From TrEMBL:
PANTHER family named in the record: 2',3'-CYCLIC-NUCLEOTIDE 2'-PHOSPHODIESTERASE_3'-NUCLEOTIDASE (PTHR11575:SF6), 5'-NUCLEOTIDASE-RELATED (PTHR11575)
Keyword Hydrolase: yes
Entry keywords, A to Z: Hydrolase, Nucleotide-binding, Signal
Domain Calcineurin-like phosphoesterase: residue ranges: 44-294
Protein's recorded name: Bifunctional 2',3'-cyclic-nucleotide 2'-phosphodiesterase/3'-nucleotidase
Signal peptide: 1-18
Domain of life: Bacteria
Hydrolase among keywords: yes
Domain 5'-Nucleotidase C-terminal: 502-603
A Pfam match: Metallophos
Length: 700
């Protein structure tokens, strides 16, 4: 008894307990009914390791991108909104030569931190989600650079503490196959003290618990099958959200934010949807931050902002998507484009009602802010604090990019006019892939593969860099054969020709009917042109899925076809021939492609992994590099005649009453003419995004 009284006295004197058992610490004042708090949720997405405003493929500054400029937007938004949370929606660690250097050429050690994570740590992100490209370099690498033990047999994180993001990494819909448990924490709860306003106008501090979820497309199991098969499984976004949103609420989440690395697909829900973000709005979340599509949502608010992407304009009215103000089924939603080019801002107001915080949609605004937000004309400056953080890595990447491949070219390989027939940046890739598959089958000891030796081999590749990320995002490999430029091709050039270092070469065996369906799918890239219309018509309504525009090639240009853009989707391919004869539905072909396409990426009918006959361990980008090396050892060089002028396709000739335009980088009309693209008639003015409007004469 005496001991207990002493303890009680000690506690009482410490102000922890009174004699009646209640705390002497003043209780937190009750929050007055009707108190409001405004929180700015800030989003970056699809940074793709673009830390600086620099293009390593072109070895030139590019002021249209870079986290160092996004940082300036972040500082401004934080000044405007003291109550803020900074989140990232994934696709951070892959996408530039800097990323490839740190992951493959000179892997960052456990003791080091990725350059992009150094910048993000300096910016004090609050949490980050995952994207599909986080898995490209494999699970061991991802485990190391996030300092996370996935609990997956055979995937061991290095011992000790590895350099990693200084903020929580979250992923809600990927679990280990053997454990059945999430490989990252499925959510995080961020307690934050924010300044609120009472009904009488006075200020008070309130605690807001912000819950954060993250989702990736289920297709990671197809796109990165070689590194994920048997190790992880993926849950549909709705199923995962319905599991974890109630958990977050039960743990006190006042505000639940979904980081969804997927676009807005309004078709009926499927757990296999690549772009299932739309269907998260019914799961009880308060705010939705999306990515993956590299688009702007809602429409930029700064002066001269580009018009909404055609894919947003096409939504049915029943979808309840407000693409002007940024709401999806009443949920504030933002997509901040890609490469650090924008900052998403959901300025969300909540009112304290009935003992809980309730979102006020009428007092909530959404913005996808670009670099010209202040006056619509002037670019924000780069934050000078970022570049010194990654100076060593930047210099190393430039040195890596300049390493010679030992072969020269006599023409410029570019994708500025790939959508109207220029194959100068595509043919070499197709030749490398075709050569690889041809040799693979010829030297194979496998009886089944040997039986395919007489089947025609064709190849397809897309113009991966053809405007998807703005007017500076085009493949452009300069000629390097003149006395003034004897350097020739360098390490940076195969990555310019074939962007995705994670794609591995595969081959599929298909029928002529499959080939026709594949070509029809590629032709979806084009708008349906009305020949009688006198209004201006875009030939390409959206550049968001440019990587799905496959261009086919056969040796000696044996495969040819035409596209009739006046026809509806699914009925555009005509005059499809091989060696001058029409391709029959039952004809056999082997197509050299990549694992993304062979496994179902791009939704080509019938191309779903079931027709794959070769799964190469070699990356397509490496196949291109090795092909160039083989040409070099044979004393050859890359020439326009042999490697850049075999155009397999053309448009069906059509006269139009009004102009048909292609948006591309300005100042390249002469290059189109030099490449033999005679249907580029003139160059018009720039649009709000900086694209030039080239007039395309479909009658030629």
């Amino acid at each position: 008894m005496k001991t207990n009284w002493v303890m009680l006295a000690a506690l009482t004197s410490a102000g922890l307990v009174a004699c009646n058992g209640s705390s002497n610490t003043p209780a937190a004042p009750a929050i007055p009914e009707g108190t409001t708090v405004t929180v700015a949720l800030l989003e970056t997405t699809d940074i793709h390791s673009n830390v600086l405003s620099y293009n390593y493929y072109a070895l030139a500054e590019d002021t249209s991108l870079g986290l160092e400029r996004t940082s300036t937007l972040i500082q401004a938004a934080r000044t405007e909104n003291p109550n803020n949370v900074l989140l990232d929606d994934g696709d951070v660690i892959q996408g530039t030569l800097l990323a490839d250097l740190q992951a493959v050429a000179a892997p960052v050690p456990c003791s080091g931190t990725l350059a992009v994570h150094k910048a993000m740590n300096a910016l004090k992100y609050d949490a980050g989600g995952m994207g599909n490209h986080e898995f490209n370099y494999g699970l061991p690498y991802l485990s190391q650079i996030t300092n996370t033990d996935f609990g997956i047999p055979g995937v061991a994180k290095p011992t000790g503490t590895c350099g990693a993001p200084a903020f929580p990494s979250v992923l809600s819909n990927v679990v280990g196959v053997s454990s059945g448990k999430p490989i990252f924490q499925p959510y995080t709860l961020l307690p934050r003290d924010f300044t609120a306003t009472a009904p009488d106008g006075s200020k008070l501090t309130v605690k807001i618990n912000v819950g954060v979820l993250s989702f990736v497309p289920p297709q990671i199991l197809e796109w990165d099958q070689k590194v994920l098969a048997g190790k992880v499984s993926v849950t549909g976004v709705q199923e995962a959200a319905k599991q974890y949103v109630p958990e977050l609420r039960s743990k006190g989440a006042d505000l639940v934010v979904a980081l969804s690395h997927g676009g807005l697909d309004t078709t009926p829900y499927s757990p296999k949807m690549e772009n299932g973000s739309y269907h998260l709005t019914s799961t009880g979340i308060d705010a939705l931050m999306i990515g993956h599509s590299h688009l702007i949502f809602p429409k930029g608010k700064e002066e001269g902002a580009a018009a909404l992407d055609a894919s947003f304009a096409a939504f049915p009215a029943s979808a309840k998507i407000d693409a002007e103000n940024g709401f999806v089924n009443g949920v504030p939603t933002v997509m901040a484009q890609s490469w650090g080019r924008r900052l998403g801002i959901i300025k969300l107001t909540m009112a304290y009602q009935g003992g809980k915080w309730v979102v006020q949609p009428a007092k909530t605004t959404v913005e996808s802010r670009g670099f010209k937000y202040t006056d619509g004309k002037t670019l924000v400056n780069a934050d000078p604090a970022i570049a010194p953080l990654v100076a060593t890595e930047h210099a190393a990447t430039i040195a890596y990019a300049k390493q010679p491949l030992g072969i020269s070219t006599d023409f410029e390989m570019s994708a500025y006019f790939a959508l109207v027939g220029d194959v100068s940046a595509i043919q070499l890739v197709n030749q490398a892939q075709l050569d690889y598959v041809k040799n693979f089958i010829a030297t194979s000891t496998d009886a089944t593969l040997s039986s395919y030796k007489n089947i025609p081999i064709i190849s397809c590749s897309a113009p991966f860099k053809a405007g998807r990320n703005g007017p500076s995002d085009f493949t452009d490999v300069a000629a390097g054969a003149s006395p003034a430029a004897p350097v020739g091709l360098q390490v940076r050039n195969p990555g310019d020709l074939y962007l995705y270092s994670n794609n591995n070469l595969q081959a599929v065996k298909i029928k002529g009917s499959d080939l026709k369906a594949w070509l029809e799918t590629s032709a979806r890239q084009f708008n349906q042109i009305d020949p009688a219309s006198g209004a201006e018509q875009d030939l390409v309504p959206s550049y968001a899925t440019i990587y799905n525009y496959d261009v086919f090639y056969a040796e000696n240009n044996a495969l040819t076809y035409q596209i009739d853009v006046t026809k509806k989707l699914g009925s555009r391919i005509v005059n499809l021939t091989y060696k001058g004869a029409p391709v029959a539905d039952g004809d056999d072909f082997i197509v050299a492609t990549n694992d993304y396409r062979a496994g179902g990426g791009g939704a080509v009918p019938g191309i779903d992994g079931s027709k794959t006959i070769i799964k190469s361990p070699d990356a397509n980008q490496a196949v291109v590099s090795n092909y160039l090396a083989s040409l070099s050892t044979k004393g050859g060089k890359v020439t326009l005649a042999a490697n850049g002028s075999a155009r397999s396709w053309s448009f069906v000739k059509t006269a139009t009453a009004g102009p048909v335009i292609l948006r591309s980088a300005p100042g390249h009309l002469a290059l189109a003419q030099a490449s033999g693209i005679a249907n580029v008639a003139s160059e018009g003015g720039l649009d709000a995004s900086g694209f030039a409007k080239y007039r395309i004469d479909l009658s030629k």
